[in-house]
Amino acid sequence: MVVRALTGHDVVMEALAHPGVRKEARHWGPWARGEIPMDWPLISWVAPDNMLTADGDRHRRLRTLVSQAFTPRRVEVLRPRVAEITADLLDAAEASGPGPVDLRAALALPLPMTVISELFGVAPEHRDTLHGLMHWVFDATVTPEQAARTNADMLAFLTELAEEKAGAPGDDLTSALLEARAEGDEKLSQSELVWTLILMIGAGYETTMNLITNSVHALLTHPEQLALVRSGEASWADAVEETLRWDASIQYLPLRYTAEDVTLAGVRVPKGEALLMGFGAAGRDPGQHGDDAHVFDLRREQRGHLAFSHGPHFCLGAGLARLEGTTALEALFTRFPRIRPAEGEDVPESPSIVASGRSRLPVVLG
């Protein structure tokens, strides 16, 4: 099985725009021949039946239906609630005592988990289960048995959520998706709804958790950049945007497929092959971002990163991720101006080919 990784900004953009590069796995030779087992570690990125894996008219229909429910207005209405959840989490972190606090566990994880759970109507008692399932989806160390079980358990969990909301609709995005209908189109089918929930909840939780963790880690390890924000020379939005470029939450997004023989960056790629899109690597491409692309610099003129992809598949949740990221950073560093990394503590990177994040982020609040 051959998988080609695209790492330069220009070649990734070329592939994203190429009509011969598709999202539907039926174009992938090994998948079409039945050679990819359901316990393949990346099966949750290939098997779904949602807008992430759809092309053309079907993608347009699914995205239109989801866009009706996931509107910018709905995101903006969340702003006070995001600030409230953040304040509560920082209260709890401060009350835990003077010792080191794992900021990933105390803030970066529960903030997007609470926001996305409330947004989609996931009851508090079920959120730990959801967290565990999403963790395995992004973990590159899973065994084949874990991968197959995670895929099945995720389907079962969200099928139950959809059935619950169908019987008792509420003021949540799952209920809104059940009612969404584009002109001339049918509503989402049960399968489409469940797979859309998998996409939206996964994209809205793990990636935002990593954005917050990566942003805090970058600022604490680059105090001169943090000083720029404190002095007003840069903003928290600048910090979020530079983190998205420099340490993107999604490093490689599996997969796209060649539906015909194509040429990318002068290289011929035969029909039926898989492409791994290197969004993270493209963020540090000197050809796009300058010779200092490897440097974390809030005063940089942003030239267009790909942390949220590009084109028809641009992330619908980008606005919510930016809202949560800026809210968390401003609240954290304003409330704890003497925050610093905990000495002698490891900050291990999460074991994932898909995502970039830290398994722990120990800090002293000060």
TrEMBL record:
<keyword id="KW-0479">Metal-binding</keyword>
<keyword id="KW-0560">Oxidoreductase</keyword>
<dbReference type="Pfam" id="PF00067">
    <property type="entry name" value="p450"/>
</dbReference>
<dbReference type="InterPro" id="IPR017972">
    <property type="entry name" value="Cyt_P450_CS"/>
</dbReference>
<dbReference type="InterPro" id="IPR002397">
    <property type="entry name" value="Cyt_P450_B"/>
</dbReference>
<dbReference type="InterPro" id="IPR001128">
    <property type="entry name" value="Cyt_P450"/>
</dbReference>
<keyword id="KW-0503">Monooxygenase</keyword>
<protein>
    <submittedName>
        <fullName>Cytochrome P450</fullName>
    </submittedName>
</protein>
<comment type="similarity">
    <text>Belongs to the cytochrome P450 family.</text>
</comment>
<keyword id="KW-0349">Heme</keyword>
<keyword id="KW-0408">Iron</keyword>
<dbReference type="InterPro" id="IPR036396">
    <property type="entry name" value="Cyt_P450_sf"/>
</dbReference>
